[in-house]
Amino acid sequence: MKLAGLKSVDNAHDDSVWAATWVPATDDRPALLLTGSLDETVRLWKPDELTCVGTNTGHSLGVVSVAAHPSGIIAASASLDSFVRVFDVDHNNTIATLEAPPSEVWQMQFDPKGTTLAVAGGGSASVKLWDTAEWKLIATLPIPRPEGLKPSEKSGNKKFVLSVAWSPDGKRVACGSMDGTISVFDVPRAKFLHHLEGHFMPVRSLVYSPVDPRVLFTASDDSNIHMYDAEGKSLINAMSGHGSWVLSVDASPDGAAIATGSSDRTVRLWDLKMRAAVQTLSSHTDQVWAVAFRPLGGAGSRSGRLASVSDDKSISLYDYS
Q1: Residues near 73 by Cβ (< 8 Å), separated by ≥ 6?
Q2: What's the CA gap between 173 and 189, in Å, rounded?
Q3: What is the mean pLDDT of residues 38-52?
Q4: Intra-chain end-to-end CA distance of the chain, in Å
């Protein structure tokens, strides 16, 4: 397996690019890359030329997260302004605006069926679930405090929830916190199941394996990537190699590899059979905030693609084979 650089766009945004995801292909168009930036805009890009086909405004502060509905028809952007904007991808019409208290909107992801949007609730120390039919808040999944701690502000802040991921069967949500704790919830029962331990610094990104709903990959500021059995509560493997914080992780659609982005300015490709990094790419000149594999499906998408975005304002696109 390897990544080969296809295209980079400098100054893709006017400021740091913090978020990226792929909008699935529809019958009418290929998959598009969706990026969010500190410049308060969200942009849509056409592969493989990386031509910008849309710029969405509407946020008053930097965009920290973007998420695409599995239908490819709608997407959402979350900003430091504490609003989530849900919009029609092809026409940029606002479908809904979800409001949260300050610093309670971080990463978000639609469930595999597209019925629910999970939002990492930041300072609320919870994950919020929004129904996508009526855009109503349907559940708040709070992270329990460790036993024996008094409910002081200090312990509360450490459970600041930064990241969220759905299992491929839609039955589990995992979230990563500022203190390195990972919490796993049973969504149908709206029940906290357990913590996964091993990280001691912020977990800014996590993703389930697309081929095994038990396996969860996590990226942390401790410079490690962990592979957990999220049901059995066990650490399967810890992978190291980055020289600094690991800010983003994504799994390849074939389940054979993961990619990571780091504040050491590199993107790494990891072979899961070898459980080791097989490639390091240095196309960025500043920290890499997001990496995203293109989902399978749609015309011309037999070839794999990975995108990365950075504080250097650029986007890079790679072939994955």
Answers
A1: 26, 88, 89, 90
A2: 12
A3: 94
A4: 5
Contact 308, 261 (CB under 8 A): yes
- As given in the structure block, the two tokens for residue 138 are 């349907």
Q: How many CB atoms lie within 10 A of CB 235?
A: 15
Close Cβ partners of 104 (under 8 Å, ≥ 6 residues apart): 82, 121, 122, 123, 124, 128
Strand partners, 146: none
Q: Is the dihedral of CA 191, 237, 281, 283 positive or negative?
A: positive
Alpha-carbon distance of 247 to 5, in angstroms, equals 21
pTM of the model: 0.94
CA distance 315 to 9: 5
Residues 244-296: tens digit of each pLDDT:
999 999 999 999 999 999 999 999 999 999 999 999 999 999 999 999 999 98
pLDDT digits over 130-174, tens only? 999 999 999 999 998 766 555 554 444 568 999 999 999 999 999
Contact 2, 279 (CB under 8 A): yes
User: How many of the other CB atoms lie within 10 Å of CB of 5?
Assistant: 12
Q: 3-class SS at 83?
A: strand
